[in-house]
Each structure stands twice: as structure tokens, then as C-alpha cells.
Design brief:
Helix content is 40%, strand content 26%. By secondary structure, the chain is an alpha/beta fold. Helix 6 packs parallel to helix 8. The model has no long low-confidence stretch (mean pLDDT 87).
């Protein structure tokens, strides 16, 4: 009986969040180790399916970098990166499209097995993501796209017809050439364009730390002012720096809350979305603070 009461209390705790985010769009950027472990994959997809079934409108934007690197190496080539971005020649672009397409349809299959409808697309479909060539500090890194526009027509059509859109980060330029896009950038641009209430990044870290060497310094909620201050004072570095900047930009452009979560933790989305304490770091504007965060 005690266990049943605990389960009931958990549902009651989730109720205000279910009400607050009912029929709201939420974008999940799916990547990192959570994509490589079969059990974690299934748990992430179960979480997204539950978000849909309790009334939210989830959108998945996925990466596939580690899988792309594996196939590039199998073809006898070396993966090259400049400031975290893959140098993408014509052959690498073909590999990226192949791998991302395979990942995309695999995720669709997993969602459908749970009795929820899903459609996999890339930014090429319906001219959803328009890009230009990204030039990094004067260096040409190949077919890597910088997003200049997101057309939400196809995404909204899928949502209106009760599908979960699952989006691979590939876009087209004005000459209809395909470009690889950083999945974090794609998730932020899509969340902003659709007016998402939430954007969640599944990563290989527990969240934002003031001191990465001290696990006790995990920050559960950051306002824009606090996030800017952490960056200005030099507390944020490495791969977290561009990710946190993406989060800040998304909130400044209208996304109410952005979450950085440890995708290696089972059911991390549910724990962050539906509990008072949460488990990762939420980047928010002052107007979006919940009572327990003030």
C-alpha cells in the first residue's frame, strides 16, 4: 500500500505540469550516449511517447555524429573537426545523409511500436530548413550549413494531424544543395520557429556546473542574467560553452524554458518535466520561474 501511495503522490506532483504544458510544443534534441545504448534509446522514446499521450506536442531533433564517424572510418577516411564542427566534403555528406536517414527511420519505428504516430523528415522535406554555407573564421569546412530560415508549415501539419515529427538536421541552400547542420543549432532554430514552450538537450553531462570538478555545484535553474554572468566570469568552457550560448539564444528568442539533461539517466525527461526538483539545469527568463525556483 505504501508503494501505491508513493505512485499516487508522484502522479499528483506531475498534475500541475501536465496542465501547464498541455497542448504546448516541446522540442527534444536527442543525441550523445543516449543514442548508442539500446535500453536508453527505448526509455527516451517511451518518455517522448508519454509526453504526447498526456497532451504535449513533442518534436524530436536528432543527431548521429558518432555513427557518422564510424561509417566514415569504415570507408577508409578520417573524421576531421574544426571547433567541434565536422569538415564535410561531398563524400562525407553522402555518408551523413545515409546515416541520419537510417537513425531517423529507426526512431520512427520505435515510436510507432509504442502505439504513437510519428513521421521522420529532414530539413530538406517541405523546404523546412534553409541554410547558407557556414564559413568558420574564414575557413571553408565544406557542406556545413548555417541556418537562415525555418519553414514550420510541414512540422505544424504533422502535429495538427497527431504525428510526432522526428527531424534529421539536413538543410538546403538557395541552389538546393544539401548541407549537414549541427543538431544543437537545428533544435534551437526549430524550437524558436515553432514557438516551443520547452527545449530539452539530452547530453552526456548532468547539467551546468559552476565548478565542473565539484559535483555539488550543479545549478538547477539559471536566469538569462545568471547564465550570461557565468560565461563572462569564465566558469563555462569546453563543449558546454556553445551549448549554453545556444540555450540563452533560444530563451531570448521566445522559448520559455531550455533544459540541459543527462541523457544517460533513465527517464530523465519525465524527471525534469514532471517533478518539482528536476534533475538537470533549466535556463529560463524571470517571467517563467516556478514558485519553487524563486
Amino acid at each position: 500500500m505504501d508503494q501505491l501511495l508513493i505512485k499516487a503522490q508522484t502522479l499528483i506532483e506531475a498534475l500541475p505540469y501536465i496542465q501547464k504544458f498541455n497542448n504546448k510544443k516541446v522540442v527534444v534534441k536527442y543525441g550523445g550516449s543516449a543514442m548508442l545504448d539500446e535500453n536508453l534509446q527505448l526509455n527516451v522514446i517511451k518518455d517522448v511517447a508519454l509526453l504526447k499521450l498526456v497532451g504535449m506536442q513533442p518534436i524530436i531533433v536528432h543527431g548521429g555524429g558518432k555513427e557518422i564517424s564510424k561509417w566514415v572510418e569504415l570507408l577508409g577516411h578520417e573524421s576531421k573537426f574544426v571547433e567541434g564542427l565536422r569538415v564535410t566534403d561531398e563524400e562525407t555528406m553522402e555518408v551523413a545523409e545515409m546515416v541520419l536517414g537510417k537513425v531517423n527511420k529507426g526512431l520512427v519505428q520505435m515510436v510507432e511500436q509504442l502505439g504513437v504516430k510519428a513521421v521522420g523528415i529532414s530539413g530538406k522535406d517541405g523546404a523546412t530548413i534553409k541554410v547558407e554555407k557556414k564559413i568558420l573564421k574564414g575557413q571553408d569546412i565544406g557542406y556545413v550549413g548555417n541556418i537562415i530560415d525555418v519553414n514550420v508549415e510541414l512540422i505544424n501539419t504533422l502535429i495538427d494531424n497527431n504525428f510526432i515529427p522526428i527531424i534529421a538536421p539536413i538543410g538546403l541552400d538557395e541552389n538546393f544543395h544539401a548541407y549537414n547542420i549541427n543538431a544543437d543549432d537545428a533544435a534551437c532554430a526549430i524550437a524558436t520557429a515553432v514557438g516551443a514552450e520547452k527545449l530539452a538537450f539530452l547530453t552526456d553531462t548532468e547539467g551546468v556546473y559552476k565548478d565542473p570538478e565539484d559535483k555539488k555545484t550543479l545549478i538547477s535553474a539559471l536566469t538569462l542574467k545568471q547564465a550570461d554572468q557565468l560565461i563572462d566570469e569564465g566558469y563555462i568552457g569546453g563543449g558546454m560553452l556553445p551549448k549554453l550560448k545556444n540555450c540563452i539564444d533560444a530563451v531570448r528568442n521566445g522559448v520559455s524554458r531550455v533544459h540541459i539533461l543527462d541523457g544517460r539517466m533513465e527517464h530523465c525527461l519525465l524527471l525534469e518535466f514532471f517533478t518539482n526538483r528536476g534533475i538537470g539545469t533549466a535556463i529560463i527568463n524571470n517571467e517563467s520561474l516556478f514558485e519553487h525556483e524563486k
